[in-house]
Automatic annotation (TrEMBL), chain A:
Region of interest (Disordered), ranges: 57-94
The species this protein was found in: Natrialba taiwanensis DSM 12281
Protein name: Uncharacterized protein
Top-rank taxon: Archaea
From TrEMBL, chain B:
Cofactor(s) needed: Zn(2+)
InterPro entries on file: Aldolase_TIM (IPR013785), BKACE (IPR008567)
Keywords: Metal-binding, Transferase, Zinc
Protein name: 3-keto-5-aminohexanoate cleavage protein
GO molecular-function term, one example from the UniProt record: 3-keto-5-aminohexanoate cleavage activity
Pfam families: BKACE
Length: 94, 280
C-alpha cells in the first residue's frame, strides 16, 4: 500500500514535468525520487516506518477522522517539510 | 599519493557523476534522467575533460531503477555519443534488496568500473543503507568475475577500516582505487585536516578520488588536485555553480575543475591515460 499523502502530478508549485512525478500532499511539494520509493513502499521500504513526513502528519490526520486523508488543505502543509531541497547535492548515496 | 605526486605533474582523472539516484528534476531542471539525456551529458562531460562517467539508472519519471535493461539503454546511449569515456555504474541503493544491487553489473559489455559502497550510511531520518560486509564481498566477487574495476566509496573514516578489511578478505587488483567522501550526515566532516588524515590512512599504493558534496565540491576537488588525487564533480553531488546559482550542466562543473587543474599545472587524464593509471 502506498502512502495516503502520495499523489502523482504533472505540475504544481509553478513546476511542470513531462511525466507525472511523486508529490507529497502533506509537505505540499514534489519529493525526491528516492523518497518516492518510500512513498510507494517499494523495495524494502515502508512509508509508515521510514518516512518522517508521514509519521509527523499521520497523527494529525487521525485526529480528523472522517476527513479525506489525501486532502492536503488541513493546516499541515506548511508546518515543516522534510528539507529535501536543502539536501540536494548532499549525497549520502553515491 | 601525496603532494609529491602533484609536484611530479601526474595526470588527474576527472569523474563526472551525471545523475545520481537521490534528487531529480524536481531539484534542478538541468539534471539528466533519461538514457538519451544521460548519453548527451556524458558526451559533453567527456568533451570538457572527464575520463569517467558515474551513472545511476532511472525510470521515465525520474524514480530509481536497478534493472540491467535500463543500465543497458544508458550505456548504449552513451556509446552512441562518446566511444571512449569510461563508464562506471553505481551499485548503491538505499533500501534496495541485495539482489537488485548486483543488476547494474550485468550489462553487455559489463561496465569497466562500478562503485562499491564500503559500509553503512544514514538517509533521511529513518533509513540506513546497510552495505553489509557480506554484500560488499558478493558485489566484489561478481565484479572480479565480470572484469569490473571497483571504486571503493569511503563515506567516512570507518570505511577506511572496512577497505583494509576487504583487502584482508579478498584479493584486490592494483592499484586500489577509493573515493574519499566529505559532507554532512554520515560522511566525513568536510575539514581539510580530515582530508589530510584520510589520505594518510589509505592503503599503500592506493589511488584516491576526492568528492565533496554540495558547496564542498569545489574546495575539496582543489585539495584533491593539490595532493595528487583524482576528483569527482557533477550534478549528482552538487547542483549549484555558486551560491544561489544552479549549475547549468555537468559539463559546466567539469570545465571549472579542468581550468583549476590547468592553472595548477596538473594535466587532465584522457580516458586512455585513466585506464593505464587504474589498471583497467
Amino acid at each position: 500500500m502506498s502512502c495516503p499523502f502520495l499523489d502523482y502530478r504533472l505540475e504544481a508549485n509553478e513546476r511542470q514535468f513531462d511525466e507525472p512525478r511523486a508529490y507529497c500532499e502533506a509537505a505540499a511539494r514534489f519529493v525526491q525520487p528516492m523518497r518516492a520509493d518510500i512513498c510507494n513502499d517499494r523495495y524494502d521500504l515502508a512509508h509508515d516506518s521510514d518516512c518522517e513526513i508521514y509519521l509527523e502528519h499521520a497523527g494529525a490526520a487521525d485526529e480528523n477522522e472522517g476527513e479525506n486523508k489525501r486532502e492536503p488543505e488541513n493546516g499541515t502543509e506548511n508546518r515543516s517539510g522534510d528539507g529535501d531541497e536543502n539536501r540536494a547535492g548532499s549525497g549520502e548515496d553515491a | 599519493m601525496s603532494y609529491d605526486e602533484f609536484l611530479a605533474g601526474e595526470p588527474v582523472i576527472i569523474t563526472a557523476a551525471l545523475t545520481g539516484g537521490v534528487h531529480g528534476k524536481e531539484t534542478t531542471p538541468h539534471l539528466p534522467e533519461t538514457p538519451e539525456e544521460i548519453g548527451k551529458a556524458a558526451a559533453e562531460a567527456e568533451a570538457a575533460g572527464a575520463a569517467v562517467v558515474h551513472v545511476h539508472a532511472r525510470q521515465p519519471n525520474g524514480e530509481r531503477t536497478f534493472a540491467t535493461e535500463r543500465f543497458q539503454e544508458i550505456d548504449d546511449a552513451i556509446r552512441r555519443r562518446a566511444e571512449d569515456v569510461i563508464i562506471q555504474h553505481s551499485t548503491g541503493g538505499t533500501g534496495a534488496p541485495d539482489a537488485d544491487r548486483h543488476l547494474p553489473l550485468r550489462t553487455d559489455p559489463a561496465p569497466e568500473m562500478a562503485s562499491l559502497d564500503m559500509g553503512p550510511l544514514n538517509r533521511y531520518d529513518h533509513l540506513t543503507s546497510e552495505n553489509t560486509r557480506g554484500l560488499v564481498d558478493s558485489l566484489h566477487a561478481e565484479m572480479v568475475e565480470r572484469g569490473v574495476k571497483p571504486e571503493l566509496e569511503l563515506f567516512n573514516d570507518g570505511h577506511l577500516n572496512e577497505a583494509f578489511g576487504l583487502l584482508d578478505r579478498r584479493d584486490l587488483a592494483n592499484p586500489v582505487y577509493g573515493t574519499l567522501i566529505f559532507g554532512p550526515g554520515t560522511l566525513t566532516p568536510p575539514a581539510p585536516r580530515n582530508f589530510l588524515t584520510a589520505i594518510d590512512n589509505l592503503p599503500a599504493g592506493a589511488q584516491f578520488n576526492t568528492l565533496g558534496f554540495g558547496r564542498h565540491q569545489l574546495p575539496f576537488a582543489t585539495m584533491g588536485l593539490l595532493f595528487g588525487g583524482h576528483v569527482r564533480v557533477g550534478l549528482e553531488d552538487n547542483v549549484y555553480y555558486r551560491q544561489g546559482e544552479l549549475a547549468t550542466s555537468n559539463a559546466q562543473l567539469v570545465e571549472r575543475v579542468v581550468r583549476i587543474a590547468d592553472e595548477l599545472g596538473r594535466p587532465v587524464a584522457t580516458p586512455s591515460q585513466a585506464r593505464e593509471i587504474l589498471g583497467l
